[in-house]
Amino acid sequence: MNVLLFGPPGSGKGTQAKDLAERLGVPHVATGDIFRKNLREGTALGQLANSFMKVGALVPDSVTCDIVADRLMQPDALDGVLLDGFPRSVPQAEWLLGWLASNGRRADAVISLEVPEAAILERITGRRTCSQCGATYHVVYNPPGATCAKCGSNEIVQRKDDSAEVVQGRLTAYARETAAVLPLLRKSVATHDLDGTGEIAAVKARIFAALKL
User: Fold this and answer.
1) Is 186 a catalytic residue?
2) Which of 13, 71, 123, 206 is catalytic?
3) What is the pTM of this model?
4) What is the residue-wise DSSP string for 113-125?
5) Is 128 a catalytic residue?
6) Active site includes 170?
7) Which of 16, 149, 156, 181 has its CA at a distance of 20 to 30 angstroms from the CA of residue 60?
């Protein structure tokens, strides 16, 4: 089963992806992870992508699609994947649908987690991270003590990319990039718009119910 997981930054995609992939019996494929793996291993595709990234340019859709295709052809992904963060543009979406069809596969479902912008800002801007071990806290839901409960460090900070300004920019970019993607997918793929707010278990239950798992 091939499932596409959508949602803005802070919508809980990463939190839900692990259990959903396990229930589906397919790998969780996040484009960010694929890029990092190719860069780390110095593959030809990774080097090509890096040639754009090191000069501050966006990686072209064609390169991104080639990297995704390479991942989709790996043995563990032949029976399905949970795609997280892809496609992000109309060309990528058109490519994906065409590639799946040409390989005797299809996109079975789209899960779109909907979370109000105010809730996302609260989630992300309230996050605090231990700069030593990476443990995460939240000023409201899981406030840190004077020192990190995991490693004892007193260096618990707000990361720069968790600031309100950066988060707002990421939300704007997401809306701009994906505004036309979901309408395109709806034309041929069963799409489920789900409430992404509330307890993690409640959101998980909504996703599983929508996919009849």
Assistant:
1) no
2) 13
3) 0.83
4) EE--HHHHHHHHH
5) no
6) yes
7) 16
